[in-house]
Amino acid sequence: MSTSPVTSWGGAGPYAAALRTGRGPLFLRRSDGWLLPLEVERWCARADPVDRAVLDRCEGAVLDVGCGPGRLVAELAARGRTVLGIDVSEAAVDHTVRLGGQALRRSVFEPLPGEGRWGTVLLMDGNVGIGGDPRALLDRVARLLRPGGLLIAETAAVDVDERSEVRVVDGTGMGTGAIGPETDGHGVGAGGDGAFPWARLGTPALLRYAGRAGWRPVGQWTTGRRRFAALRSRSPRSASSSAEPANSTALISSQRARKPSADRPVADR
């Protein structure tokens, strides 16, 4: 992955602005001008019945990868569950903490608390596309989970298997057409900067990658226009001797003192 999502998605001004207002329009834009609408209003609202049904399936301590503004972290925290959100966007972490959840500004590919001991990892709202390399992401999630742990992923509503470079853009000046190559709609990346790798996967594509990576499917379902899959690793793995228990809120909090300020939960600032 040549471009770090931490410096692109995480630094996207339109994304931070959308989280502050709680509304879009906001898009991922491919280099050919094709736009994928992002559901900012839903993400900034409280967990809805579809979300809550997914959270009912969670086991043990939960890591929400790409937690966004934190609706799922806040819902699980309100249920008394041990949960941590991670996101590369400082605005997203801020929002999550304001809702009462724990969150770190961190990429899933960076060191994380509780590695090898999480009961459930969530990849919701299309986050199965993080990094643009589904196999690498699945391998990373397997190292985060405890042996036999659960991955719940939300997949695309259509059968797609696509990798591309994208930018986060808003709707300013777009009119009714796609954004042209020289006008970025007030997004990151004018002149070629800020693009980052992303993937879109339908459930069949996710299951193909998962099968090759040693995962066992344990469920798939559709609610409304949203589709989900649940997976477990086939082979138990030994947790790293240096991994921290994920079922301890105190140990999650202890990461604050050992990381630079940019990595601390906002609540600790």
From TrEMBL:
What are the Basic and acidic residues biased-composition ranges? Answer: 260-269
Identify the Pfam families for this entry: Methyltransf_23
Alphabetized GO MF terms = methyltransferase activity
GO BP terms, alphabetized:
methylation
Q: So where does this one cross the membrane? A: none
Indicate, by first and last residue, each region the UniProt record lists as having compositional bias (Low complexity). Answer: 230-250
Q: Which InterPro entries match?
A: SAM-dependent_MTases_sf (IPR029063)
Region ranges (Disordered): 229-269
Q: Which UniProt keywords apply?
A: Methyltransferase, Transferase
| Name assigned to this protein | Class I SAM-dependent methyltransferase
Native organism is: Streptomyces argyrophylli
